[in-house]
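A student in our group prepared the protein record below, which I am reviewing. What it holds is a sequence and that sequence's fold in token form. My question to you is simply how this chain folds and whether the tokens agree. Do not assume that whoever made the record got everything right. I have pasted the whole thing underneath without changing anything:
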Amino acid sequence: MAPALLGACGGPQSALSPAGPAAATIAQGWWLMATAFTAVWAIVLALLWLALRRRDGDSALRHPRRLIVAGGFVLPTVVLAALLVWGSLTSGRLAWPGEEPDAVIDVTARQWQWHFHYRDADGAVVAESLDEVVLPLGRMVELRITSDDVIHGFWIPRLAGKIDAIPGRVNVLRLQADEATPMRGQCAEFCGLDHARMEFRVRVVDDAAWAAWLAGDASAADAPADAAGAPAATGGSGTR
């Protein structure tokens, strides 16, 4: 039974197997809420069991209003307020406010692929990849996400939360990969018939491999378009 219940807690696309600080904060919040509301559920079942054990001849509750106020107002208010305070105090760790990113990557979503452009310190595009994003290990990366057609949802469960890719708008997501383990990203917004197959690989490399990869793809931004009209893929990823 335990393996079946815990089967979704790992793998390349599991939010409960974080590989970075933002995802770790989200997973911690999930476990906190799961624990708190499991306790509330257990209390409700215990009260239900006591009610079912009562007999018609039993005396009525001495203070029924106290039970209603405590269980229906005080308990949920305290639990939800505690979770709200905790979430507010930890939300800053998901965005790294005031910090300069170590790398900037432009992300463009379209039906049904992900296109990544990598910028240097001067803002020039020095590399690109298709349906695969390469991230430097242990470095904070700023992703500037938009869409060419419809609304998509950018999501790497093991690294950060979801954020929409919206035509005509750039949304910013910051994340950090602390483990070079298999990971996968996914479109989290229904965007058409091939939505379920709109995924991308996540490759995490050390500083030396990151610099070498960027240097090897320095001319990618000027690569000719392929037969379908899309820029040719580089960095080891291919078109569908």
